[in-house]
Amino acid sequence: MAEAHQAVAFQFTVTPDGIDLQLCHEALRQIYLSGLHSWKKRFIRFKNGVMTGVYPGSPAGFMVVVVSYMSYNKYKQLDPSLGLILCNYGHASGVLVGTGLWVTIIMIMRNVLKSLLSWHGWMHARHGSVSWSTRLWMLLVKVFSGRKPMLYSFQNSLPRLPVPSVKDTCRRYLESVRALMDDEQYERMKGLTKDFEKNLGPKLQWYLKLKSWWASNYVSDWWEEYIYLRGRGPIMVNSNYYAMDFLYVFPTSIQAARAGNAIHAIMLYRRKLDRAQIKPLMLLHTIPMCSAQYERMFNTSRVPGVDTDILQHMNESKHIAVFHKGRFFKVWMFYDGRLLLPREIEQQMERILADKSEPLPGEENLAALTAGDRWVVTPWARARETYFSRGKNKQSLDAIEKAAFFVTLDDTEQRFEPDNPVKSLDSYAKSLLHGKCYDRWFDKSFNLIVFKNGTMGLNAEHSWADAPIIGHLWEHVLSMDPVKLGYTEDGHCCGEPHPNLPGPQRLQWDIPAECQDTIQSSLTLARTLADDVDCHIFPFDDFGKGLIKKCRTSPDAFIQIALQLAHYRDKGKFCLTYEASMTRLFREGRTETVRSCTMETCAFVRSMIRDETLLKMAAEKHQNMYRLAMTGQGIDRHLFCLYVVSKYLGEDSPFLKEVLSEPWRLSTSQTPLQQVELFDLVRHPEYVSSGGGFGPVADDGYGVSYIIVGENLINFHISSKHSSPETDSHRFGANIKQAMLDILDLFQLEKKAM
Description:
Distance between the termini: 79 Å
Strand order of the largest sheet: 15-9-8-12-13-14-3-20
Number of domains: 5
Largest sheet: 8 strands, mixed
CATH superfamily of the largest domain: Choline/Carnitine o-acyltransferase, domain 2
Strand content: 5-15%
Number of helices: 24
Radius of gyration: 29 Å
């Protein structure tokens, strides 16, 4: 019972001699250290807020400007206040005017930088060649970017996402669908488009322009609300996505040890994030990208509502929530005023794994509520309000929703097996994507999943940010785990267990039979959805971006064209294709769609003759579409926002209604490796990430994610549904591999090398 006593600060009893007060010094010491830690964190946040608020200025710059100005006034014996402020040598007025001068310099630098960052001509330069105008532009960007930027330093200097003209968007839309329609269908759509462009479009555009002047980003808030938070279907499979562990390296087979290092690395990342010490991502080491999405990575949970969900974000959370064999635990991450070390976290995980207690009634399958439907007549929002709004249920639910993140100590074993690569990777992906449908809390910003044999992975909720953000965290964890943190010879975390560390707290529930029926209903629906998912993951190691670059072609364009060829062979037709592109060159930018199925790509696929010309035309077209999407000139986000405005105005648009109802039967995304400096793939090629994936977007379509790792490896993640007679993930995977080989063969690199 020593641990229970340590959790109580003091106790008192009333006696005939008065009040007998017994202080627990250890508990008071922990309260003092906890408060000290909180105040330190507040101070750091305040300091970082000031530093970010005045960037590219700095305290040192302030001193230089003010002292120089005052020295000049003293030398010339000038009074900048013109006698309004009486003070020797005008010190007070000198400080005020010097401060104003410093602020003016900052504002000029910011606005110049914003103007420079609004130019995107650098994107059109051929790979490997940089014009003098681009070099001069990059030099100016560096000059006005300041020194040692913090994570959020550039937020006030980023340009706003521009609103394309209705005419340009309509023109590009017609161009994007021409290859998918016959003449009659195209003429009909052309008529709808022209009518919209002439009549309703300009009216909707006026409101959108007004929003773009007022809001930081005219797309992002509506995108988050209407695409994610108002979605009433299950977020498991349909929205959440996953990230895998190393492909070939298994640092330890001890589950608690792997969890110890991973959790510690994640908490170190959170500390750097809180202190804004993470470097902002810079394209070409010069061009800053928006960092707004990092803000809700931790201490965040999606809270269900009847009509719409909300994102609940806490400024501070000192614990994590852990699930193992149907039980939930609250684990504090700080003791003695410091973050727990890896071996101490392993110690806590060992205690959970050794706990033999049985789940309380309804507890084991509770998380299935986060996996099921969110319609009005079904469970999660109403169950939360009815059964989890008071008492011990509310306390336990708060412990989960207010945790830094969620951890599952999975009781299954997953990993890449060289003797059975297909089945092992497919099983691994399905486990990360949906698990048993009740052993992940799908509403948390992300779940860390550690399997029984030490393999691990992530499952992330999508509304708060896009995959590159969680990918940045995951790269940090994978780079720290086996190398910087390491393990002992017997596979445990380095260091020693703590002799007086209080153990994890078992969460308590009182779940009535009616709620258990609701949980079971959600679980049944979720299992049906999960069983229908057909996953196929395969490493493509015949060649990689190194050989593709020798073809003088963009690796991404090469892969996208290969996907089109594979899809045509798989289904005998083309389809509307979604490729995600980021818009983080603009403030609060998220994503835009690259419509990869172009006229040029279709012409190449149909021909497949030994002629590089058509492929190069298709690749250049794809690159141009990608550039337009990145620079705010895409099609789909503009049309989406016009549609939202039309709904607010009560206007009906047959054109917008038809466009936004078109299914994406091929949805694709590249997982970028953003911190290449963390991985030495030349000396240690085994330290490669498997990347991550997502579920199919359409019932009769494919979801494809790929990661280009090093020079010689591309990992593909394919998903579809067993229930569709048109799709087969393994068949499509074989078609992708053959398409990659066939396209490379067109270049005849072996003959050119002779």
